[in-house]
Structure formats: structure tokens, C-alpha cells
């Protein structure tokens, strides 16, 4: 795998509450590891939640004794949830904090994905395909056919998350196993990207760029040109 990651505060926020991890190298029994987290909460609380989530997951994965990728991810998600939840209970300045999370690892011809919240993972082959489901109010409405993707992007309640990490003692994440092949590009992003650009825009930008670095940079640039309403984080990885 080769990869590139970039985060940007956007045009409207004073603080970046997104955090990412991007490793093309071995982490524990994983051959690679990519994570994006988008924190929620008051001043500094969301920032703390996303960093604590990512660091806890990486630490758990690095020392895990489990054999299967899904079990390793489950253990890491539970560990991160406990860390974020406990910090929120113990420190008044972190009360009510939480974070979205999307993560993946690629092993041979299979990608293993974990997610909770509305940070997304896409697979780009001939066309772009959203792999994860949004755990959000508008995501549920889109799934039921009550809203289109375009309507969801500008909906006044688009920021209401129905599932998050760290907001309760128990966490319910989704897990996926996806077949991948040489040349496939994986995109992990916070909603600061997906709320500013539609899927076709993202596909067009990635396909016309010669490198992952150029693609990641242009995705951030275009998200800011379309408003930059939130923090923008992009992780791109390509199977070689």
C-alpha cells in the first residue's frame, strides 16, 4: 500500500477537531493501518476525543493477541470507547465529548473496515462506492428514501449523529470485509469533505490527479472552495 493523508481546519472553524493515523507499515499483526476520527464536544473536548480515540486504537492494535482482523478492530474500538467515555466522566471540561471513527487495514486481497458515526470510507475502482453507512439523522433518512444525498448535504440537522464513540459505556460499530485488487484507491474522510463535495466530484478529482498527494491536496482545496464549513480530513491509500 502507498498512502497520503492531509487535514485542514477549513474556513469556518477556529480549531481542528479531526485527527488521523496513516501507516503504510506494520502495526501489530496488521500490514498497514488508516484511521480518521472527527471529534464532537465543546472547546477542546472534540479535539481531545478524536486524538484519544486514535491513540487508544493504535495502542490496542499494536499489542493485540487476537488473530482475526475484525476481532482486533472490535477490541480496539471497545478500548478507545472506554478511554474516551472515562475521560468525559472524570473531567468536567470533557463532559459529553465523543467522536466518529472510520478505520481500515488491507491484508492481501481483503480490506477490513470499522466505522461509527458519519466519517466515511469509499472504494474507487472504475467508479466510486461508499462502503460505510452514515450513523446520522440524515443518513437514516437517506437510507429510508426520504432524502436524497444532495438534500442531506444541506439539511439543517445534518450534524446530528445517531451513533458515536465515547458517548456511552457501550459502543456499536459496523464492520465490513471488502475484496480489493491492485490499483484500487481507498478514501477515508471526515464529513468536512463529504458535506462539501458530492461523490462524483471526489471521483473526478482523484481520477484526474497523477499522485495520491495531488489528489488529497485537491480534495481539501475544493472542499474549502465549496465553503469549508467544517474541518476537512482526507486519507488516501492505494493497493500496489
List its traits.
240 residues, alpha+beta, five-stranded antiparallel sheet, 7 helices, 10 strands, 27% strand
**CATH class division:** Alpha Beta
What is the CA–CA distance across the termini?
6 Å
**Proportion of helical residues:** 25-40%
Topology, number of strands: 10
Decide which structural class fits the backbone. Answer: alpha+beta
Count of helical regions: 7
What's the pLDDT, averaged over the residues? 93
Count of discrete structural domains: 1
Secondary-structure element series: EEEHHEEEEHHEEHHHE
Largest sheet: 5 strands, antiparallel
For the largest sheet, list the strands in their spatial order: 1-10-9-6-7
Q: What is the third-level CATH name, the topology? A: Phosphatase 2c, domain 1
Q: Tell me, what's the shape?
A: globular
Taking pLDDT < 50 over at least 5 consecutive residues as the criterion, the unreliable ranges are: none
**The CATH superfamily title:** PPM-type phosphatase domain
Question: In what range is the share of β-strand residues?
Answer: 25-35%
Rounded to the nearest angstrom, the radius of gyration is 17 Å
CATH architecture: 4-Layer Sandwich
Structural commentary:
The chain is of the alpha+beta class and 240 residues long. The protein has one domain (2-238): PPM-type phosphatase domain (Phosphatase 2c, domain 1, 4-Layer Sandwich). Helices cover 34% and strands 27% of the residues. The protein contains 7 helices and 10 strands. The chain has helices at residues 45-63, 69-90, 137-143, 149-153, 191-194, 199-208, 212-225; strands spanning 2-8, 18-23, 33-40, 98-107, 110-116, 120-124, 128-130, 174-179, 185-189, 232-238. The chain has a 5-stranded antiparallel sheet with strand order 1-10-9-6-7. A 5-stranded antiparallel sheet has the order 2-3-4-5-8. A hairpin with a 2-residue loop joins strand 4 (98-107) and strand 5. Helix 1 packs antiparallel against helix 2 and helix 6 packs antiparallel against helix 7 (212-225). The protein starts with a strand and ends with a strand.
Amino acid at each position: 500500500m502507498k498512502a497520503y493523508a492531509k487535514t485542514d481546519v477549513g474556513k469556518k472553524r477556529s480549531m481542528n477537531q479531526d485527527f488521523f493515523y496513516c501507516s503504510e507499515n506494520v502495526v501489530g499483526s496488521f500490514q498497514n493501518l488508516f484511521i480518521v476520527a472527527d471529534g464532537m464536544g465543546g472547546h477542546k473536548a472534540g479535539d481531545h476525543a478524536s486524538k484519544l480515540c486514535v491513540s487508544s486504537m493504535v495502542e490496542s492494535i499494536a499489542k493485540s493477541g487476537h488473530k482475526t482482523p475484525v476481532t482486533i478492530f472490535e477490541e480496539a474500538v471497545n478500548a478507545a470507547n472506554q478511554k474516551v467515555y472515562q475521560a468525559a466522566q472524570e473531567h468536567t471540561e470533557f463532559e459529553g465529548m465523543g467522536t466518529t471513527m472510520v478505520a481500515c487495514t488491507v491484508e492481501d486481497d481483503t480490506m477490513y473496515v470499522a466505522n461509527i458515526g458519519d466519517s466515511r470510507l469509499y472504494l474507487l475502482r472504475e467508479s466510486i462506492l461508499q462502503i460505510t453507512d452514515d450513523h446520522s439523522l440524515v443518513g437514516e433518512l437517506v437510507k429510508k428514501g426520504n432524502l436524497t444525498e444532495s438534500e442531506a448535504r444541506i439539511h439543517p440537522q445534518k450534524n446530528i449523529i445517531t451513533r458515536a464513540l465515547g458517548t456511552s459505556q457501550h459502543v456499536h460499530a459496523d464492520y465490513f470485509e471488502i475484496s480489493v485488487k491492485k490499483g484500487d484507491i481507498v478514501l477515508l474522510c471526515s464529513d468536512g469533505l463529504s458535506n462539501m463535495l458530492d461523490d462524483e466530484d471526489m471521483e473526478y478529482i482523484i481520477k484526474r490527479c497523477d499522485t495520491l498527494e495531488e489528489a488529497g491536496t485537491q480534495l481539501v482545496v475544493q472542499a474549502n472552495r465549496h465553503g469549508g464549513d467544517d474541518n476537512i480530513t482526507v486519507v488516501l491509500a492505494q493497493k500496489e
